[in-house]
Specification:
Blueprint (H helix, E strand, L loop, with lengths): L7 E5 L3 H9 L2 H10 L4 H25 L2 E5 L13 E5 L2 H8 L7 E4 L18 H9 L5 E11 L4 E4 L2 E6 L5 E7 L2 E7 L2 E4 L7 H16 L17 E6 L14 E5 L4 E5 L5 E5 L6 E3 L5 E14 L1
Helix pairs in contact: 1-2
């Protein structure tokens, strides 16, 4: 396929400044709000200007390339990608993750809009290199990294995928009530929710849950020795689940609180929450599935895999 016929989809995001203006209606009101909190408003301006410059440079490369389309990340849940699209995400690591979970094998290029601000584990390129990277992708000269994704499938047919992790639990600080089942074991639980992590996400939320749990256990036992948490590879063929703050009682247990989910051994959850039960992925709380009493969720390794250009 020639460069002229292969379309590029550029995924963008609003800056913190744009979010503030949308919330407070004017730049002056946004500035007053931030400075009233004692924060540095100039940092918001600097970040916005840097992103604008990177976006302008990126668009210049795409104009020279040929066919392209721009989509804001808020429209990703309803956007339909073509099978031969090349996807470019200009933003932080989270934007790459939140773009990847809506793809089905399309190559994804992460662009770092401000390398001095963002480490960019998933952002190996800067906007100026985009033209060269696109040509390499089209001609098969650029390596790709396979990324395992998680999938939650509800009993009503709804599906949600995750690049980093899934959260299953309450929208509020109330307890999550559910039945958990894996590998022939089953128990009723009351907790603050469950995290199911991919290999890519094992350096994020899951690490904090495991580290906190081990730290509390060591403190209770008055032991001071350290512990080493080992993250998994991005293409690891299994997921890891951890139950947050399980509460044992007459009707709930706290034994089935950590384990691994393979392609042939899914994690099953039966909701007992009359309201406020949800499933969301990769920290996007606004994009959630209702998970209330009577619903069943099957969590497993997704058949789809992410394809990150490196």
């Amino acid at each position: 396929m020639s460069e002229q016929t292969r379309k590029v989809v550029l995924v963008t995001r609003r800056t913190r400044l744009e979010d503030l203006i949308a919330r407070h209606h004017t730049l002056a009101q946004a500035k007053f709000y931030i400075e009233h909190l004692g924060a540095d408003f100039s940092d918001y301006l600097a970040e916005h200007d840097a992103y604008a410059r990177s976006l302008e440079l990126t668009l210049g490369k795409l104009e020279a390339w040929g066919r392209y389309q721009i989509v804001d990340r808020s429209y990703l849940p309803n956007f339909i990608f073509a099978a031969d699209d090349i996807v470019v995400a200009l933003g932080q690591d989270g934007l790459v993750a939140n773009s990847m979970k809506y793809l089905d094998g399309q190559p994804l290029i992460g662009l770092n809009p401000e390398p001095t601000r963002w480490d960019g584990v998933l952002l190996p390129f800067e906007p100026g290199a985009l033209g060269t990277v696109l040509a390499d992708v089209v001609h098969g000269r650029r390596p790709m990294k396979s990324v395992t994704m998680a999938e939650a499938r509800l009993s009503d047919g709804q599906v949600m995928r995750a690049v980093n992790d899934l959260f299953i639990g309450p929208r509020t600080h109330a307890s999550a009530l559910y039945e958990i089942e894996i590998g022939g074991r089953r128990e009723f639980q009351s907790s603050s929710g469950i995290i199911v992590s991919t290999g890519l996400g094992s350096t994020a939320w899951l690490k904090s849950v495991v580290s906190g749990s081990l730290g509390v256990a060591h403190a209770v036992q008055q032991r001071s020795e350290g512990f080493q948490y080992q993250a998994q590879a991005w293409d690891c063929p299994e997921l890891t689940f951890a139950v947050r703050e399980p509460f044992p009682s007459r009707t709930s247990k706290a034994e089935l609180v950590f384990g691994h989910v393979g392609a042939q051994e899914p994690l099953k959850l039966h909701s007992r929450m009359p309201e406020n039960g949800v499933i969301f992925s990769d920290g996007m709380e606004a994009d959630y599935l209702r998970f209330t009493a009577g619903m069943e969720a099957t969590v497993s390794v997704a058949a789809r895999r992410g394809c990150l250009v490196i």
